[in-house]
Design brief:
By secondary structure, the protein is an alpha/beta fold. The chain folds into two domains: 1-18 and 66-105 and 151-228, Rossmann fold (3-Layer(aba) Sandwich), CATH 3.40.50; 20-62 and 111-144, 2-Layer Sandwich (SIR2/SIRT2 'Small Domain'), CATH 3.30.1600.10. It has helices spanning 11-14, 33-36, 39-44, 46-61, 67-78, 93-96, 154-161, 182-188, 215-227, and strands at residues 4-8, 27-28, 31-32, 83-87, 101-103, 106-113, 119-121, 140-144, 166-170, 192-197, 209-212. The strands form three sheets. A six-stranded parallel sheet has the order 5-4-1-9-10-11, sandwiched between helices. A three-stranded antiparallel sheet has the order 7-6-8. The structure holds adenosine-5-diphosphoribose (APR). Adenosine-5-diphosphoribose binds at residues 9-11, 14-15, 20-23, 33, 88, 105, 171-173, 175-176, 197-199, 201, 214-215. Adenosine-5-diphosphoribose binds next to helix 1.
Length: 228
């Protein structure tokens, strides 16, 4: 069966209580997320950025996967072809539902050493100057891909996009590249493309099919159709 590639965004975790970026809750304590999620912000005010991610880490840790996460895990388990899930989200809700994912923007429950590149499970509360367990330097930072940094696993992701028969984008506004350009790659490779979203994304016109509504309703129905 044809390979399925699925891109998810903040909208799939919205019904688990995690805020999206560009919805009403897109601001954090009057800071635009784009102004906090950058290497410059971290260099300028490491305490502010560390606190921002400690709060998001705590929020994500207490959230539960919803029916949309569960449906994608079911698809991966029951579909008799490859199902690749690429998420822009940094929460662990796909994994909590039993799915395997590629975290192209990193993940909250992982820390990265800016000195030696070592990665380790992040403590719930990271400190400014968190000590790296490998090099012992005070260079720990959240393992999050900030604006201006290169997303992870891009070669692998593009390899999947050019060889899939079906591409779906779920709960993403299509305003941040390279993820917003994935539909174009999949379409150029001849894949059928579908957007499942609450509102039309900025790239909705590039999708062959759209299904609007909350992810906890649209995704289980879509998966049931694929598995029938
Ligand atoms: N069900 C389905 N879709 C939803 C729901 C829901 N319950 N609630 C919101 N959405 C949709 C919105 O319509 C919107 O299109 O989810 C999308 C959320 O868009 P953003 O907040 O922009 O989140 P996302 O697209 O994931 O942002 C991409 O931007 O800030 C950076 O790195 C950050 O990964 C993030 C990237």
């Amino acid at each position: 069966m044809e390979k399925i590639v699925i891109l998810t965004g903040a909208g799939i975790s919205a019904e688990s209580g995690l805020g999206t970026f560009r919805g009403a809750g897109g601001l954090w304590e009057n800071h635009r997320v784009e102004d906090v999620a950058t290497p410059e912000a971290f260099a300028r005010d490491p305490a502010l950025v560390t606190t921002f991610y400690n709060q998001r880490r705590a929020g994500a840790a207490s959230a539960k996967p919803n029916a949309a996460h569960a449906a994608l895990a079911r698809l991966q388990a029951e579909y008799d072809g490859e199902v690749v899930i690429v998420t822009q989200n940094v929460d662990g809700l796909h994994e909590a539902a039993g799915a395997t994912v590629l975290h192209m923007h990193g993940q909250l429950d992982q820390a990265l050493c800016a000195g030696c590149g070592h990665r380790w499970p992040a403590p719930m509360e990271m400190a400014v100057g968190e000590v790296c367990p490998a090099c012992k330097g005070p260079h720990g930072r959240p393992d999050i891909v900030w604006f201006g940094e290169m997303p992870y696993d891009m070669d692998e992701i593009f390899g999947h996009l050019v060889s899939c028969g079906l591409f779906a984008a779920i709960g993403t506004s299509g305003q941040v590249y390279p993820a917003a350009g994935f539909v174009q790659e999949a379409d150029a490779a001849g894949a059928h493309t579908v957007e499942l979203n609450l509102d039309p994304s900025s790239v909705v016109s590039q999708f062959a099919e759209t299904r609007f509504g909350p992810a906890t309703q649209t995704v289980p129905a879509w998966v049931a159709g694929l598995l029938s």
